[in-house]
């Protein structure tokens, strides 16, 4: 099979590179769920979308072609473009997650040790802990104060900003450390972020806490945060800096959080360009996939179902039965990244069923571990439909498994929607270094995924 690159004519090549410029901007600016939702809403509004609350309140009429968005706790975003057919006949749904592996600041983070002040973290998602040390890191998030006011933080992204980071042991003194296995060479409890080293001039402070007190003073003066405010904060330590072109030929992008913002962005863009579809088009961007999709903002939450119910209430006579029919008649691409073939580690793959960079969007019939445990096994009927759809739209796709049988495995949000009785398949973009601070994707796959999602929304019946 040829790579996508060999098929692109000049104009497609240009469109592909242009699309990736916007994508780089998106992941450089959006490094938390809340930042993704905020930017998603901004883009949606610019494309003519209206908040679902306007329809619920009866201030706007929900008719075919209407573009509607719904936000859940600033961490989930749903977009709908109402189709000509009633909702109860089903939707075409794109779903991706907008949370990525990172280090969360603990509720009581600050301490001083011999003149250095650090913040304790708790890692989020599956990470090789040793990859997260000795790198410039940024602090993103939000602090809610007792009086209800909020402070939004983003420190370390402007080139003039300071960055923070986690130290690694110097090689000269690593005799004992180098004998450890990779799982323990850097321990979770030791992922402490260094944030300061100048003691306060005030002689009133205890000798042992003088740097900490200076940092607290700085936090108060610059951000109006006190030590107790960390209790009601959501602060994430993420790799600092922008996504960049990767490879001498600029064919790839290296960035933080491709998993799964690369599928989120392409799904979002595909949805924003849809006008008056036959079946209602829907895009769901959710939180908490990396930790099991639980909680009010994970895919297991009732939020999505609730929003479809609200929408039905605005468009046709709502009934529980009709809602269930709408969900069961829907079809979904659960868009999440695949493991891209890595020439440095060929042994983890079975080559016929491996995803390659530059070969187009990847359909995974199933993921899961061992004997497909925990997987959503897509129906061949749906896959046949997609094959025809992709061929008609001249989109290149590949199929893959997540590595050799019994090598490991993983899951996505696919099964959660499938539990609502709809047809779902995993579809996404091949990634190198998945879950490392800096991940790599092919620009060709990013663009083909966008084209595939657009074709799915408009053509699948
Ligand atoms: Mn993922
Ligand atoms: Mn992941």
Features:
22 strands, Aminopeptidase, binds manganese (II) ion, 9-stranded mixed β-sheet, alpha/beta, 461 residues, single chain, Aminopeptidase i, Domain 2
Short summary:
The protein has helices at 4-7, 10-29, 33-46, 52-56, 182-185, 210-223, 258-272, 303-315, 320-328, 380-392, 414-418, 443-459, and strands at residues 50-51, 67-72, 76-81, 91-97, 102-113, 116-124, 137-144, 150-155, 193-196, 233-239, 244-246, 252-255, 280-286, 331-335, 338-339, 361-364, 368-369, 397-399, 409-410, 423-428, 430-432, 439-442. With 461 residues, the chain is an alpha/beta fold.
Secondary-structure topology with pairs:
Elements: H1 4-7, H2 10-29, H3 33-46, E1 50-51, H4 52-56, E2 67-72, E3 76-81, E4 91-97, E5 102-113, E6 116-124, E7 137-144, E8 150-155, H5 182-185, E9 193-196, H6 210-223, E10 233-239, E11 244-246, E12 252-255, H7 258-272, E13 280-286, H8 303-315, H9 320-328, E14 331-335, E15 338-339, E16 361-364, E17 368-369, H10 380-392, E18 397-399, E19 409-410, H11 414-418, E20 423-428, E21 430-432, E22 439-442, H12 443-459
Parallel strand pairs: 1-2, 4-13, 4-14, 14-20, 15-21, 16-18
Antiparallel strand pairs: 2-3, 3-13, 5-6, 5-10, 6-9, 7-8, 7-10, 11-12, 12-22, 16-20, 17-19, 21-22
Bound molecules: manganese (II) ion (2 copies).
How does this model look, in words?
The protein is of the alpha/beta class. The chain has two domains: 4-100 and 256-459, Aminopeptidase; 102-239, Aminopeptidase i, Domain 2 (Roll). It is built from twelve helices and 22 strands. It has a nine-stranded mixed β-sheet, with helices on both faces. Strand 2 and strand 3 form a beta hairpin. It binds manganese (II) ion (2 copies).
């Amino acid at each position: 099979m040829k790579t996508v690159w060999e098929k692109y004519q000049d104009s497609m090549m240009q469109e592909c590179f242009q699309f990736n410029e916007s994508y780089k901007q998106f992941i450089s600016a959006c490094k938390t769920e809340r930042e993704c939702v905020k930017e998603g809403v901004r883009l949606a509004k610019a494309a003519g979308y209206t908040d679902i609350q306007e329809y619920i309140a009866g201030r706007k009429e929900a008719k075919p072609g209407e573009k509607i968005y719904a936000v859940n706790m600033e961490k989930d975003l749903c977009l709908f473009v109402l189709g000509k057919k009633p909702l109860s006949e089903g939707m075409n749904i794109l779903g991706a997650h907008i949370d990525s592996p990172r280090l969360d600041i603990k509720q009581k983070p600050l301490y001083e040790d011999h003149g250095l002040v650090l913040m304790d973290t708790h890692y989020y998602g599956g990470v090789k802990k040793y990859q997260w040390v000795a790198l410039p890191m940024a602090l993103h998030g939000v602090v809610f104060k007792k009086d209800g006011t909020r402070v939004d933080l983003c420190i370390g992204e402007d080139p003039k900003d300071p960055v923070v980071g986690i130290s690694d042991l110097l090689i000269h003194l690593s005799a004992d450390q180098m004998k450890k296995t990779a799982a323990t060479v850097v321990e979770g409890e030791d992922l402490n972020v260094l944030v300061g080293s100048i003691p306060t001039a005030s002689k009133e402070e205890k000798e042992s806490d003088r740097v900490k007190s200076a940092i607290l003073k700085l936090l108060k003066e610059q951000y109006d945060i006190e030590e107790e405010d960390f209790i009601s904060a959501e602060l994430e330590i993420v790799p600092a800096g922008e996504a960049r072109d990767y490879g001498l030929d600029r064919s790839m992008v290296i960035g933080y959080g491709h998993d799964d913002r690369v599928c989120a962005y392409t799904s979002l863009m595909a949805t924003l360009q849809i006008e008056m579809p036959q079946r209602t088009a829907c895009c769901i961007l959710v939180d908490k996939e990396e930790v099991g999709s639980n909680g009010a903002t994970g895919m297991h939450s009732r939020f999505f179902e609730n929003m479809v119910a609200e929408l039905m209430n605005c468009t046709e006579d709502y009934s529980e039965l009709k809602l269930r029919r709408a969900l069961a008649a829907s079809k979904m691409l659960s868009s999440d990244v695949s493991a891209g073939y890595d020439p440095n580690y060929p042994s983890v793959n079975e080559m016929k069923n491996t995803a390659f960079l530059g070969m187009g969007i990847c359909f995974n019939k199933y993921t899961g571990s061992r004997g497909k445990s925990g997987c959503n096994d897509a129906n061949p009927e749906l896959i046949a439909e997609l094959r025809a759809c992709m061929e008609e739209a001249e989109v290149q796709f590949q199929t893959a498994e997540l590595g050799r049988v019994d090598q490991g495995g993983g899951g996505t949000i696919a099964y959660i929607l499938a539990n609502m009785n709809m047809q779902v398949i995993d579809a996404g973009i091949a990634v190198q270094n998945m879950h490392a601070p800096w991940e790599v994707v092919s620009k060709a796959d990013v663009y083909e995924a966008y084209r595939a999602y657009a074709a799915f929304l408009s053509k699948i019946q």
